[in-house]
Amino acid sequence: MMRRVTTIAETRAALAGLRRGGRTVGLVPTMGALHDGHLSLVRASRDRCDVTVVSVFVNPTQFGPGEDLDSYPRDLDADAALLESAGADLLFAPDASEMYAEGAETRVEPGSISTVLCGASRPGHFAGVATVVVKLLGITLPDFAFFGEKDYQQLKVIERVVRDLDMPVRVMGCPIVRDEDGLALSSRNRYLNAGERVSARVLSRALRRLCERIARGEIDACELTRALADEVSGEPGVRLEYAAIVDAETLAPLGRLTSPGRALVAARVGRTRLIDNVAVGPVPAKADAAVVPLSWRSPA
């Protein structure tokens, strides 16, 4: 039966007991409002680790002025029920005063990888993410930590922080989970009304068409980026924030698609900010040009 705790001391004590006998620990950090994407991370942890701990904490330091901190969806009882059914062992659900003691000033600055893409429009966001993740890693001392690739830049930032600070944890990126219409699962999807939900499909549709163009042999990343941006920005009710094709590790822009890359897009649909991405890379010379990744064959 899953145990639910709210303090750092309780969490450390519970994990000390669960860890006895050399059992491995997996951490799944979340902000709650859980969906099947989050639960896929829990399953990934259960497959690899003996003990799975999930944190639910709406982290105030990663929200900027005017963002949705106050309105961010919260339903801890519903989240707990989902985690119990998914087989999590420990739910850590602190409040802000538990995570940030009065007078706390220390922040983790992730460096240049955090200043581009989402970091350019959300200054300080990734410092808030990095700080809370480092705190959660220090509290739970996991062997593995699981993050979804939907927040791809966040995943790369965390990998960089863990590497640069020599933290003894392996960061595991897990595939994006999509709804039947192709939309990447996100807690913020519940902000969308019916019409906005239809418009939001353009993100996954544009990325799928990008993959189709690459499968036909196109490698001019600048032209591919323009096509991606044009399709997203051409959808009524959608305001493009950025479209980019970048190196999969450094997030530096690519001119030609001759190495593994990532295509990323961010846009506002009504008042809701959504992001999506897909792995891209050069098609091998002998590859079937008609092949499109299987994950893009769901209707959009």
Tell me what the structure shows.
Helix content is 36%, strand content 19%. It has 9 helices and 9 strands. It has a 6-stranded parallel sheet with strand order 1-4-3-2-5-6, sandwiched between helices. α6 crosses α7 and α8 packs antiparallel against α9. The radius of gyration is 20 Å and the shape is globular. The two termini are 39 Å apart.
Secondary structure blueprint with pairings:
Blueprint lengths: L2 E3 L2 H12 L5 E6 L5 H13 L2 E6 L19 H11 L3 E3 L3 H4 L18 H4 L3 H16 L3 E5 L3 H13 L5 E5 L19 H22 L5 H13 L4 E10 L13 E9 L2 E9 L20
Concise summary:
By secondary structure, the chain is α/β, with parallel strands linked by helices. It contains nine helices and nine strands. Helix 6 (125-140) packs across helix 7 (152-164) and helix 8 runs antiparallel to helix 9 (221-233).
Between the first and last Cα atoms, what is the distance in angstroms?
Answer: 39 Å
Helical/strand content category: alpha/beta
Biggest sheet: strands, sense, closure? 6 strands, parallel
CATH topology-level name of the largest domain: Rossmann fold
Task: Identify the quaternary structure here.
Answer: single chain
Radius of gyration from the alpha-carbon trace, in angstroms: 20 Å
Indicate the CATH architecture of the largest domain: 3-Layer(aba) Sandwich
Integer average pLDDT: 94
Shape: globular
CATH superfamily of the largest domain: HUPs
Helix content: 25-40%
Number of strands: 9
How many domains would you count in the coordinates? 2
Q: How large a portion of the residues is in β-strands, by DSSP E? A: 15-25%
Strand line-up of the largest beta sheet:
1-4-3-2-5-6
Number of helices: 9
The sequence of SSEs as H and E is EHEHEHEHHHEHEHHEEE
As residue ranges, the low-confidence spans are 287-292, 296-300
